[in-house]
Amino acid sequence: MADYQFETSKVIEKAKKYNPRIIGLQFPDGLKIHALKLARKLEKELGVTVLISADPCYGACDVADTKLEGIVDLLIHYGHSPLPLDYNIPVIFIEAYAKVDIIPALRSSLKLLSGYDKVGVATTTQHLHLLDEAIKFLEDHGKKVLSAKGVGTRRGQVLGCNFSSVKELDVDVYLFIGSGDFHPLGIRLFTGKPVIAADPYTGQVNNIEDFADRILRIRFAAITRAREAKKWGVIMSSKKGQKRLSLALNLKKLLEDSGREAFIIILDDVSPELLVPFRDLNAFVVSACPRMPVDDYHLYDKPILTPIELEIVLGKRGWEDYTLDEILF
Amino acid sequence: MADYQFETSKVIEKAKKYNPRIIGLQFPDGLKIHALKLARKLEKELGVTVLISADPCYGACDVADTKLEGIVDLLIHYGHSPLPLDYNIPVIFIEAYAKVDIIPALRSSLKLLSGYDKVGVATTTQHLHLLDEAIKFLEDHGKKVLSAKGVGTRRGQVLGCNFSSVKELDVDVYLFIGSGDFHPLGIRLFTGKPVIAADPYTGQVNNIEDFADRILRIRFAAITRAREAKKWGVIMSSKKGQKRLSLALNLKKLLEDSGREAFIIILDDVSPELLVPFRDLNAFVVSACPRMPVDDYHLYDKPILTPIELEIVLGKRGWEDYTLDEILF
Hints:
The structure is a homodimer of 329-residue chains.
Chain A (H helix, E strand, L loop, with lengths): L2 E3 L2 H9 L5 E5 L8 H12 L2 E5 L11 H4 L5 E5 L12 E4 L2 E3 L3 H11 L4 E6 L7 H10 L3 E3 L26 E5 L4 H10 L3 E4 L6 E3 L1 H18 L4 E7 L7 H13 L3 E7 L4 H4 L7 E4 L5 H4 L8 E2 L1 H7 L16
Parallel strand pairs in A: 2-3, 2-4, 4-5, 7-8, 7-9, 9-10, 12-13, 12-14, 14-15
Antiparallel strand pairs in A: 1-6, 10-11
Helix pairs in contact in A: 1-2, 7-11
């Protein structure tokens, strides 16, 4: 099990300033197993009552401030860096950096990076503290390394829905440091350049090209199936960081202007069971989380598209201009 | 498929007063299949955009006003009568009475009611409009029929968490009109009297005694298992009508005072998957929906109790004083 820096001393110091009686703790799903231990520690050290939020939490788009307003005096949100949003209650963000040795994965990546001179680096919140070490390692091994800040993201940071930090780099290849295929896929689709993914937890390294190719074929098939759909659901989220009401209204209008029917369905957490009652709908387009159609397509028996994919269905964009949907604040 | 009175003309007249641009529609799960048809009609007649809420909705405790605040100008909530709560946005409640002939079920009930003189009647929101007809039928067949208002409920109305309308009636037997076993179970446990349930959808009639006996044995087993539990989760809801923060704090204190550990877990919709990360906990007590431990016990692999059941575990209440948990505003 990976361990993380929960920075409890810092949390205690910061929390004291709010003189709280009741504190909420919120974690992404992967960190929730640490919740009881942290709750007990904070209750003991601060003399407060802790409430642990157990709702799903997929990102900083998904802060429990609205749900916990009027219940807790302060919320500690772990695992994400803040987005430029207004929160209803005081929120302390703790990134929860992974305690992991990044060097073995970097060493393994050198083989796949051979032949490339200029390397762009990108990572997720849990490994941002390792970025300088990674850059130094790559430079020590003869690479020219570039990184940049993004729109609302820190240097080298990518989110599932925000790849702005990597888009403009003049590099030959990208090295993504972190686990999973989805972030590297985003870098690949937004930049069109090769992406090598190095997982510091497993030490495994791989080129994302085959995965990107498979996803693109799945997306192409979904777009093709959706062309026949006459009745559409526009899936909108009530989460503060995914709300995009104007986008939902625009998608409805786009569909109606093209002679199709469209209904806006609003949810907190989107899941296939919750769409079952709307069985008359033939396809969905998502103004909520940009990752949902691409990550979760296999859970749905009807085509579920991003707004950009709908543009392709409606002939307003060519397949050659395919890219992922982003939320940039 | 049962049909319901959605009172669209009344909705349109009432909605016009708010001059809305965007309207939210909310339904309990069983009525959601009617959502698209109603959305289209309201959009056409009112010239508005409709957003259909697809989150689970279990009662008037669960109104989407907080989630839809800042998004819709008006919310139409179908299927429940209002609770005495303050809502963040204007809400119109439409009970959605079932279009069903109640007489066949009543006729079938006469056999099971024979031998009883004074009959108390109770029903759920969907059949409140049939109460007078039911009373007349029973009186025409020689019964003395009693009904009463409850705390926050209408005459003869019971909710899954509110049986106050039936508790004080001086009757020999209760006739419950509606589907499902859970409401009749509540009447049985709160009054200690025989309960006959008549389902107007199927015409079926049954005595709830065997079901009540089975549920009580399951609850007794859950209480027995929970006696060994040292680490407890207190499950609290962030839903406005189920919040009960003071109860959650009291339950935590009760457990801690008895030498056990207790952690408050707060959720919007409670489900077993969301409790998986808290695997160190041995048992749960619920300050959220009173029905959850009794209705959903089979979904959980650990004992999950009502606050009243916890009192029995802690020796503060005897099994002979067993009853269901209620939320009375």
